Amino acid sequence: MVSPAMDDLKEKEPIIFQLALNILENLKTACFTEKELFFFENGGKYEATWEDGIATEGKYTFPDGLEFSEKKWQYCDGYDRRFYTEICSGLKPAGRSQLSNDIPPKSIPENCYDCGDGFYNPESRIVNDYSGKFLRNADDDEHEWITKTCRKGWDENVDYSDNYKVFSRCYDIQNMHIYDQ
């Protein structure tokens, strides 16, 4: 017996219906034996070849089309700071730089960080998805990575006057001397 939603799917998309039935049956037996494609709620997808319930090879594609690769992964490697949308569509002109891969960027709650799949609260050490549902507790490594690299939900003011003298040195190249202003 299938649900009314599955009956509707059977009439409109018979191939997808059959695939859904195969996945449900395989989930019951917990044994995938061929190529399967899974779609995730966030828009990502995982395509894998299975043997006796174990994925022998597979590929995850993020919702924006970026394909994950365990080998030679070059996105977010520390050398290229562009977002995937910038890699695909080019950089924006000066003054219109992107703050995240999303256009426009999500508004981050105060005292939280945008860690890519949701918001991280460093006080509770909890990551919630963008709709507020619990995702996970961050361990020490993830906490450190997020607080060092991710976008913050607040602005930090830098006291310009205290630091001014550090940058106020002038160089008189003609006369080869340095003086403070």
Provide a concise account of the structure shown.
This protein is α+β, with helices and mostly antiparallel strands and 181 residues long.
Give keywords:
five-stranded antiparallel beta sheet; 10 strands; alpha+beta; three-stranded antiparallel beta sheet
Description:
With 181 residues, this protein is α+β, with helices and mostly antiparallel strands. Helices cover 25% and strands 23% of the residues. The strands form three sheets. A five-stranded antiparallel sheet has the order 7-6-5-4-8, with helices on one face. A three-stranded antiparallel sheet has the order 1-2-3, with no helix packed on it. The C terminus is likely disordered.
What's the arrangement of strands in the largest beta sheet?
7-6-5-4-8
Enumerate the spans where pLDDT stays under 50 for 5 or more consecutive residues.
163-181
Give the overall shape, derived from the CA principal axes. Answer: globular
- On the 0-100 scale, what is the average pLDDT? 75
Instruction: Give the SSE order as H and E letters.
Output: HHEEEHEEEEHEHEE
User: Over all CA atoms, what is the radius of gyration?
Assistant: 25 Å
The proportion of strand residues reads 15-25%
Helical percentage: 10-25%
Distance between the termini: 84 Å
Largest sheet: 5 strands, antiparallel
Alpha-beta content class: alpha+beta
* DSSP summary: helix tally: 5
Number of strands: 10
